[in-house]
Amino acid sequence: MNGSFHSGFVAIVGRANVGKSTLLNAMLGQKLAIVSPKPHTTRHKLLGVLNGEGFQAALLDTPGFLRRGRDQLDAAMSRQMASALADADLAVLVVEPRPPGDVERLLVDQISASGTPILLALNKIDSVAKRKLLPVIEAYTVLHDFVDIVPLSATEKDGVDVLLRQLAERLPAQEALFAPEVLTDRPVSLLCADMIQEKVFLLYEQEIPYDVAVEIEEYEERAEGQADLVRATIYVDTPSQKRLLIGAGGSALKEVGVQARADIEQLVGGPVYVELWVKVSPKWRRKAGFIQRMV
Length: 295
Prior knowledge:
Blueprint: E1 6-13, H1 20-28, E2 46-52, E3 55-61, H2 72-87, E4 90-95, H3 102-114, E5 118-122, H4 133-143, E6 148-151, H5 160-169, H6 188-204, E7 213-220, E8 228-236, H7 239-246, H8 251-268, E9 272-280, H9 288-294
Helix pairs in contact: 6-8
């Protein structure tokens, strides 16, 4: 990189569960995006501002690629990804260590049509033998003229520094877009909702389906020394899901709150009181007004 300062927007895109959110957290050096084994855990565009030596990268984590939308939620998620790409000076396409599939080809075509340069992040290299990486890299080299291909492991933070160097060099030469103290443009309340949702997904695994949404009814920042108040409603699709989520004597729901509180306290840097409620909203994924509040 030359002596000038570089900054710009970077869209992190890819199919579901390739590790986009894990990579965002690894680049930032702290947890901002929620992570779970469930597909499409990320439902909205999430900005994370990274300040490095001589550069500032406005990283945009995006929902996983959707070939076709089923409902209002899927449509909203697709719009979030398109919006991130429209803002981007550079796209980081995150892929697993296997030859490109239909989704990767469609994404490359979509990004290329906008003229945005693509940096390929070959993630999860810790999951395969090194000898298997070369054929994958060769297949991607044939597919597109990427500005670079960086093998890495976001979970192990192996190769993330290389990706950051390559990324910084390709951002426009311009002043910083955000003040140095800015981490994200998302309100604390929405980040709290994400963290509660993450704990539901992690604790219930296959027992609770994807039909879960979290809305913060109240976030009260209290005086120093007092715990902030987070009052949230978890929406499910059926009464049986509500019973399962609450558990016997409310024990299951209490565990969601305990685990979410730990992450929220780390985020806000102080004590937090988390109060959770569960409500049934049948077919909420198909309700446009409901989705607009959530995404």
